[in-house]
Amino acid sequence: MRCRSFVVAALAPLALAFPASADPAESTALTLGDSSEVFPTSLPLPDGFQPEGIAIGVRPIAYFGSRTDGSIFQVDLLNGRGKILSVGSGPASPSLGLKVDFRDRLFVAGGGGGDGRVIDTNTGKVLAHYQFAAGGSFVNDVVLARDGAWFTDSNIQVLYKLPIGHRGELPAPDAFETVPLTGDIVFAAGTNSNGIALTPDGQSLIIVQSNTGKLFKVDPDTGVTQAIDLHAESVPAGDGLFLVGRTLFVMQNRLNQLAEIRLDLAATAGTLVKRLSDPRFDVPTTIAQFGNRFYLPNARFTTPPTPTTPYSAVAIEPF
What we know:
mainly beta, Methylamine Dehydrogenase, Chain H, 5-stranded antiparallel sheet, 5-stranded mixed sheet, 319 residues
């Protein structure tokens, strides 16, 4: 995800090419890719799309969210071919952090719209919408836990929780929970809470504070935060988080680096193992895994956006 100063987006949102009134089934007319390479390592996205979040479920399909109008673009990882799955409603409701569950539902963080959405990945239809906060909010990322979906807010010192029923029931529009963050974290100017992940035992949460480069363990019952001791290290510009076992990967977007951190058993301390980079990185923001690859969208925050600015995602093998 990104610094709030980049909320003001492209000169022409995708809604000009894909009207908000269009039926999701009709919006799939645009297709990109279709490489002769099997599992290509570069995935083209629509010009002017301004990607931010990525999610991959059990199938080899990646979902990308647009900062310009909230559209969702899906890509077949096998051949790189992509199409619009869901047409966004406009620049007031972008699509940032994404996660997909095993019921083929995509959970979407709505940025400056202060909201979250749940989209059916089979039809592209919005199943539920949650207005977490009004002006001043910036809902940045989401993670799925056993008891629900958790969203960060980069501007307000809280987390939002969508309780999920035992049979996968989504809550009513006003049945979300707002959990104030206390303890070690202190919000300051800039982008605060950004990426979010579970601890290795699945019992707590981890968030990164982009402007300070700190990681925090969060008690989901109380909202109390504890700084994770990285010794002399930090992860400034920390964005998307991705946990593999006890290893936490932190995408440091503007630094074009992927930090690999080995956590202790309690997830109260971590040791930097290494930082990865790639010449194809152009401010990558978030991480999703399929097989032995990580897929990362290049948000290109340092490139002035236009309707014809090209965008893509890249695949790397971090292990």
